[in-house]
Amino acid sequence: MTQDFTFERRGRTSTAAFVIAGLYIVLIAAMLLLNVSAWIVGIVFLFTIPAVWDLANDTRSGLTLSENDISWFHGKNSATIELAEIKRFRIDLRMDRSVKFIAELKSGRKIRLPQPSTPPLSDLERELTLRELPFRKNPFALL
């Protein structure tokens, strides 16, 4: 009997706060010192809204792999799949070093797990191998 593997991540981290604050300082400096147009700064600002939202709400994400099922959550959304229903897992590595984790069901349906609830690749591979769950790793998938 193997112990349940649990991974959890929080949206409120000091790294995220420093990156967002640093970006805003750079944007303000660009407007004041380099005369960058306000609409350009506004467009860059729009791309930071999801990060600020996660920081403000402290969005939690996680994954639990037990003997019988795999479950995950991100914010208010959650799901569980019985391991008996899963044909195999697919791990796609992207050029930006992010990981796309997909459960391929025996019915042919593919369920993509949310990116924030995916554990680090080394931990994920170790747990799938330890539990003898079939998985395929695809390096550098663009889509």
Let me know the CATH homologous superfamily of the largest domain. Pleckstrin-homology domain (PH domain)/Phosphotyrosine-binding domain (PTB)
State the CATH class of the largest domain.
Answer: Mainly Beta
Give the name of the CATH architecture of the largest domain: Roll
Strand % is 25-35%
The SSE string, one letter per element, is: EHHEEEEEEHE
Q: Give the total of domains.
A: 2
Number of helices: 3
N→C terminal distance: 37 Å
CA-based shape? elongated
Query: What class do helices, strands and sheet pairing give?
Result: alpha+beta
Helix content: 25-40%
Sheet with most strands: 4 strands, antiparallel
What's the gyration radius in Å? 19 Å
Strand order of the largest sheet: 1-2-3-4
CATH topology of the largest domain: PH-domain like
Mean pLDDT: 88
The beta-strand count equals 8
Low-confidence stretches: none
Q: How would you explain this protein's 3D organization?
A:
35% of the residues lie in helices and 32% in strands. The chain has 143 residues and is an alpha+beta fold. It has two domains: 10-57; 61-138, Pleckstrin-homology domain (PH domain)/Phosphotyrosine-binding domain (PTB) (PH-domain like, Roll). It has a four-stranded antiparallel beta sheet, with no helix packed on it. The chain has a four-stranded mixed beta sheet with strand order 7-6-5-8, with helices on one face. A hairpin with a 2-residue loop joins strand 3 (69-74) and strand 4 (77-82). Helix 1 (14-33) packs antiparallel against helix 2 (38-57). The protein is elongated. The mean pLDDT is 88.
